[in-house]
Amino acid sequence: MTAVVETEGLTKFYGARRGLEDLTLEIRPGEVFGYLGPNGAGKTTTIRLLLGVIRPTSGRATVFGADTRDPRVRARIGYLPGELALEGRERARDYLQFLADVRGGVSRGRIDDLAERLDADLSVRMGELSKGNKQKVGLIQAFMHEPELLILDEPTSGLDPLVQQEFLAMVREARTAGHTILMSSHVLAEVEHVADRVGIVRAGRLVAVEDIAALRERAVRHVELHFDAPVPKESFEGLPGVRDLVVQGASLRCTIDGRPDALIKAAARYTVVHMVSAEPDLEEIFLTYYSEEEGRHAHAGA
Amino acid sequence: MPTLVRKTLGEYRRALIGWTVGLCAFLTMYISIYASMMKDPETFSAQAIAKYPGAFRDLMGGMSDIATGRGYLHAVAYQLLGPLLFTMCAAILGNRAIAGPEEARTLELTLTLPIDRRRLLLERWAALALGLLAVALVTLALVAGASSAADMEVPFGDILAAHTGLFLLVLFFGTLTLCVGAAFGRKQVALAVTGVWGVAGYIVETMGRNLDAISWLRWVSPVHYYLDGRPLYQGWPYGDYLVLLGATAVLLMTALLAFERRDVGV
């Protein structure tokens, strides 16, 4: 299958300032791709290049196999800008209807359905929308024509937690429908529950592309076990993947890299009364993993 | 009507109504005092006019026949204030085509619609031209009505010729503002270019008549092609109007080319 988004050596300089350098990336049909990086790393630059809002300094980008200048491609994209600006006296519903008309129409009742799901008031004038409501209008316009490719720049900013859940459900539905999603964020936690793969961009360069499942395997977990009687520390020492081991009487605390298998088997010899395992912090593994990678590169270079 | 033209006209509606009301009020006021001024011939007698400095008279378009209906109408409506106000209207609307939405950051989403940039710009320009045409038609009707009510004795054909020139002039300046805005994405830059070219063009055209040092500059002044043919007196200066139209077309082409390759919103 051909890639939905394909870039090759995509580079953008704003004068002398580097926006993005040498990005080679492929986003496959039907996947949810999380595009991560700190603010100013080049996420929005990439997205604007893909939409033809800005022109590349060098390199190539295609969407659905066509040049990003081709306006027909954009009918198949739903886009939520990172800094969505909506102004004027026009009511949100009329603006959405205008966008829908230009894109060739949306199915009946679709706008109202989405508005209801996100609890958005569309009778408000655009200039008077609150930040959260603006984001909702932005999401509605991105999803309403059921585009084959969704490009969402920091989609969850400004949304309250309930609406965030609804948004994630909408993303999952789009994926189920076979659509492709590219969403950016500056924190992994926002995308890890829906993304299949993540790419990390830093200072204008793509530093890694990873499978979320593989990442989860490598995840760092903080585990706490409580036994019915004190346990000897020696039984748990030297287990593969176990670090920072602390045994105090009947309780044990440690950090696990990757699979918890060895620890579980060791603990099974005693009576476990209580166990706490924090949700794997992918952010942490990410940062440690890539700081190690960078360290190794630096070392190899020396 | 294409969606984008209709949408843009919708956005312009309030401003268009406001400017039309303002221009009409201005024209009505000035034309209606003509009658009372004529009752007191001293105001505009040759001696009275001669008291004004020559340069001032040049700037006001001569003022030699301001005591006649045609001269008065030309001086108040078509020489300076009419074009000035109407050009301000055109520049403000021209800025709302590209530079305004770009600075407000609303242009980004519009650009990601399945419309190519050339069509976007052309349709926004078309809306600007239609809007200005509407203002021109309403003010034309008003000038024609008010001047005949005030017994100015200017034939409609001459008013139409002058008003057409006025429309072409403001269309040029509106397109100029749109063009600079499309090329640089900055409202202030677009207004500055339009303002400087307009004001300098006016001064060069009026003072340049009697000042050889700058008279050669008159040919780059858009105002020259509007005022020089004296349409209110002599009817249609076709060649001059074609120059204005051609210059507008060149600006539009420039805007299309510049906008096509530019990064928007950075």
Automatic annotation (TrEMBL), chain A:
Subcellular location: Cell membrane
Taxonomic path: Bacteria, Bacillati, Actinomycetota, Actinomycetes, Streptosporangiales
Protein name per the record: ABC transporter ATP-binding protein
Keywords: Antibiotic resistance, ATP-binding, Nucleotide-binding, Transport
SMART domains (alphabetical): AAA
Family assignment from sequence similarity: Belongs to the ABC transporter superfamily.
Domain ABC transporter intervals: 5-228
A molecular function GO annotation: ATP hydrolysis activity
GO biological process: response to antibiotic
Pfam families for the chain: ABC_tran (PF00005)
GO cellular component terms, semicolon-separated: plasma membrane
Membrane topology: Peripheral membrane protein
Keyword DNA-binding: no
Automatic annotation (TrEMBL), chain B:
Domain of life, per lineage: Bacteria
Lineage of source species: Bacteria, Bacillati, Actinomycetota, Actinomycetes, Streptosporangiales
Pfam families: ABC2_membrane_2
Membrane spanning residue stretches: 16-35, 72-93, 125-147, 159-182, 189-208, 241-259
Gene Ontology MF annotations: ABC-type transporter activity
Protein name per UniProt: ABC transporter permease subunit
Record's keyword terms, sorted: Membrane, Transmembrane, Transmembrane helix
A GO CC term assigned to this protein in UniProt: plasma membrane
